[in-house]
Amino acid sequence: MQTNTTRDKTIDFIKGILILFVILGHTTLGLTDMYSFDDTMNGITNVIYSFHMPCFIAVSGFLYREYVRNASQGISSRIGHKSFNILLPYVMISVIYWMIKFALSNLLREPLSVSSLISIPWKPIEIFWYLYALFLIYCVAYMADYVFARLLPHFKNKMELLFVLFFIIALTSYGRFHYVGFNYIACFQMYFYLGCLIKKWLDKLDNRYAVLSGLPPV
User: Fold this and answer.
1) Which residue of 67, 91, 190, 201 pairs with 166 in a disulfide if CB–CB is 3.0 to 4.6 A?
2) pLDDT beyond 50 at 59
């Protein structure tokens, strides 16, 4: 497998800005829980939470579009790779986090129970939901690639179709599943494909610019 190893500093900059919004969002949410504020603080919190995590997912989709264009791995290899890079750290960090909070349960307002440790495979602990959701989103993307490669290998609008499909799922099915993993997919998968589409559209613009300027297309 050969991939593009050039690091895009623009993506790093976007991630840095989003991390700052995550910090700001958690800060405003904590202050709102502790103190009485007017509607302005609640409004700021709601605005931040409306876009910062969808943007993180979209960035992952943007990078995924570049990855699948260069990668030659099969579905099992891809899922195994993500299991090592995302799922394993998710489990390890969740267990360590649980141990610390369980040991300090007498000092916390919301201590963790033993059941929360057992349910890590299907119910993430607090902030670690993102790693869990991201792994599931990648798995769905890999399976969709596998299906399209065999059923519709020459179909050119796969990303558009998947975005519309998961947009409809988000409107009709989000919050209706007992298993939280399905709700994560219903909520965020469309943003993943939105990131894929943005990458696809930017590549087309770059190619058109290259043709007009006489340069070789990307």
Assistant:
1) 190
2) yes
